[in-house]
Amino acid sequence: MTLAGNSEANSAIEAAINGRALHSYLITGPRGSGKHLAAEILAAGLVCRSQSGRPCGVCPACIKVSHGTHPDVVALAKEGKENFLVSQSRFLKNDAYVRPNEAERKVYILPDAGSMEASAQNALLKLLEEPPEYAVFILLCEKDGLLLETVVSRCLHIRMLPVTVAQAKEVLRQRFPELSEGEISSAAESCGGIIGRAISALSGEDSEEQIASGIAAALAGSGELELYIACSKLEGLSRSSLRTALGILCDIIADAIVRSPDPSRPASTQQSSALAAKFSQSRLTSIYNIARVLYDRSELSLPGGSLPAAAAARLYSAATT
Ligand SMILES: [Zn+2]
């Protein structure tokens, strides 16, 4: 099992599995770039029972990892930073000193390490500095710079990079054998090398980025109803997806303020330019502040179905008054 493209990541993972694994790995890359898959391959490789070609994908250990039921591969839930602070870091501290059940190693996957507050990162740092000899920690993070330098310096850093159109096509053909070559090609060409984006597009889901882009487009269009419909797509998202969508919306508005679109997000580049063309800097700053409040609030208590309506009303008011 290897990742499409990403030869450096594949080499680092192979070295960990077949050589001497380090105690901590940091995998960074945009959403949809394969961080979770990389972590799963690494974790499965470390507990796989096969003598060669680890992870084999077929032994009982590999199957348990792929079903999320291996007792020695612990993936912490994606949650807001409060939960991470209160329950997860305490859990991690206690659990890491319990020896593995069936494998030689015990692997912890921290899917949203960038959301940890400094105090939680410092608690984790103690564990990374003096880990039990069998423990391996895999931290996933969307952007560089969200983790303390002291934490990063403890980890081997694996960066997930965009793949080529040909590599994306190969993965998509296997995943969607029922689709035409034209559909596969257009998804592969428009995903910016981030296969996860092409997969959500072909699965017919609105990705968080599409939802955020839709809200930005509606803001630039200024119709209140249009904005309400775009915001209604926030309804029913999980807490982490809601936070991601609102975070991307903040990024799009921030890019419009500094007039420097993010080239890794072709869909939102267009929206940043549209916002920059329509609004003054100071108006954009007011809109940004509202988006930022919504983002911060999404991490605290979720006011249920009232958030989409509140988001639409407050953004509309910031854009027009
Ligand atoms: Zn195996």
Explain the overall architecture.
This protein is of the alpha/beta class and 321 residues long. It folds into 3 domains: 7-159, 3-Layer(aba) Sandwich (Rossmann fold), CATH 3.40.50.300; 165-202; 208-320, Up-down Bundle (Zinc Finger, Delta Prime, domain 3). The protein contains 15 helices and 5 strands. The chain has a 5-stranded parallel beta sheet, covered by helices on one side. α14 packs antiparallel against α15 (306-320). It is globular and about 65 Å long. The model has no long low-confidence stretch (mean pLDDT 86). Zinc ion is lined by residues 48-50, 55-56, 59, 61-62.
What is the structure about, briefly put?
This protein is of the alpha/beta class and 321 residues long.
Instruction: Determine the number of helices (DSSP H or I, runs of at least 4 residues).
Output: 15
Biggest sheet, in brief? 5 strands, parallel
> At CATH's second level, what is the architecture of the largest domain?
3-Layer(aba) Sandwich
Uncertain regions spanning at least 5 consecutive residues: none
Could you tell me how far the N terminus lies from the C terminus, measured between alpha carbons in angstroms?
55 Å
CATH topology heading of the largest domain: Rossmann fold
Could you give the count of β-strands?
A: 5
> Cofactors and ligands present?
zinc ion
Strand order of the largest sheet: 2-3-4-1-5
